[in-house]
Design a protein that fits this description.
The protein is mainly alpha-helical. The chain folds into 2 domains: 78 residues, Multidrug-efflux Transporter Regulator, Chain: A, Domain 2; 31 residues. It has a two-stranded antiparallel sheet with strand order 1-2. β1 and β2 form a beta hairpin. The N terminus is likely disordered.
């Protein structure tokens, strides 16, 4: 599910059981306030909270954050679109189909524009 091209510039995830929000921020290239916001927007992202309401992310959380980052920053999804993409149901197929349709329409319009220029 994690695409190699999306996160090639990010550091490798160390072999640890738990990560602090600062460590996850560095590993994923996302500021801590963005991580806290994403927790509200993506139900799949649920870090453990312990004493003092400190967040402790596990490896699967870090991978999920990298997937979210790839969808939002590199593939251009909105928060809602990324949420649907990660939900794994029929909406994922619908979004993929819609993106393909939009890309085809854009190519067709570019061809028409090129023809009109000549």
């Amino acid at each position: 599910m994690l695409e190699a091209g999306n996160n090639s510039e990010l550091p490798a995830i160390p072999a640890k059981r738990y990560f602090t929000i600062g460590e996850v921020s560095d590993l994923c290239g996302v500021k801590p306030h963005v991580l806290r916001y994403w927790e509200q927007e993506f139900p799949q992202l649920k870090p453990l909270k312990r004493r003092g309401n400190r967040r402790y992310y596990q490896r699967h959380d870090v991978i999920m954050i990298r997937q979210i980052r790839g969808l939002l920053y590199e593939q251009g999804f909105t928060i809602g679109g990324a949420r649907l993409q990660l939900s794994g149901d029929d909406a994922k197929t619908d979004i993929t189909h819609s993106l393909e349709l939009i890309q085809q329409m854009r190519r067709d319009l570019e061809d028409v524009l090129e023809a009109l220029k000549h």
